[in-house]
Amino acid sequence: MTYEDQDLPIGCGCEDHDLTPPSGAAYTNASRRRFLRSAAGLAMAAPTLLAAACGSGSSSSTGAKQNTGAGAPTTTGSNGGSPGAPSQPSSASSTNGSGVPGPETADAALLASRYDGLKPFAPAPPPPATKPVNTNVDLPPVISHIPTDQKICFLTIDDGAEKDPAFLQMVKDFRIPITMFLADCFIQDDYNYFTQLRDTGYCTIQNHTLHHPDMTTLNAQRQLTEVTGQQQKLVKNYNTHPYLFRAPFGNSNKATQEACKQNGLKAICYWRATFQKQGFQWQAADKKLRPGDILLAHFRGPKANGKGWPEMHELMTNLFRIVQEQGYTFARLEDYV
């Protein structure tokens, strides 16, 4: 049995949200699920709504102070670039498919000094002319990896609770592609932070529901409300039309696929490894990356979680180190799905 064919446990990766709604109800963690290549045929769970850990009243967007990146590192590197802007290499910049400089143009000396010896990532190989994930099917497929023989992986970051200015600078410094699956309950206190990440040219925005419920506890109409409501929020706030979806906790069923289809979402994306405080929660027994693995991290840190989580840029430094040590680089998920 191949790695791709194994019935591997996804693991929600969300054990430490630790967010309490105004009512004081404890945040309810969903049980772990086993990955199914297709969600069609999954039995509907009891239609009891998950406690609204991040309900729309948890933080007011009215009059919320916008995070403009103040406090991010302003070191410009040896090239003397302006504070807050991606450091510019002395040689001619190559660009990726988004028209922005690729990771191979990052300032190696700056990365090594600012991020504990890390180096620039290698450029991802050109994506195939035909995307390897077929979305021209009746219902959006459920995927956790991308079929490829290249040593690439895909970084996805969920929720949006922590808004670390230094991570914004980190994205500009490393110049790697990141797919953000955002839930409105986490981002509504500072939509602008994710505008800034999007505007770097390296971060894309996809749908992760309005209130972060376990979708399998909701009936079809409530699932549709979660997906449609967030799709509308993302279009309004970011002028973007997401086409990928991630169900909270890695729990979805056929009704989730139907809700995605009605909103023009082409695939439900899960993962093969989750990054936690101390490193990856692996699905592979040998704790190694495989070509095409989708990686899951969260916007986490001491302000949002308060259980010993480091700042977001420190968490990502640890993740980047493991990926580099295993000889992988990052590619853009949207180039393959």
Please explain how this structure is put together.
This protein is an alpha/beta fold. The chain has a domain at 103-335: Glycoside hydrolase/deacetylase (TIM Barrel, Alpha-Beta Barrel), CATH 3.20.20.370. It is 21% helix and 12% strand. The chain has helices at residues 108-114, 165-174, 184-187, 191-199, 220-238, 254-262, 312-325; strands at 142-143, 152-159, 178-182, 203-207, 244-245, 267-269, 273-276, 279-282, 293-298, 329-330. The strands form two sheets. Strands 2, 3, 4, 7, 8, 9 and 10 form a seven-stranded mixed beta sheet that branches. Helix 2 (165-174) packs parallel to helix 7 (312-325) and helix 5 runs parallel beside helix 6 (254-262). The longest helix has 19 residues, at 220-238. The radius of gyration is 19 Å and the shape is globular.
Radius of gyration: 19 Å
Report how far apart the termini are: 25 Å
CATH H-level superfamily of the domain at 103-335: Glycoside hydrolase/deacetylase
Secondary structure: helix percent:
10-25%
Reading off the top of the CATH hierarchy, the class of the domain at 103-335 is best stated as Alpha Beta
From the structure provided, what is the oligomeric state, counting identical versus distinct chains?
Answer: single chain
Brief characterization of the structure:
The protein has 337 residues and is an alpha/beta fold. The chain is built from 7 helices and 10 strands. Helix 5 (220-238) packs parallel to helix 6 (254-262).
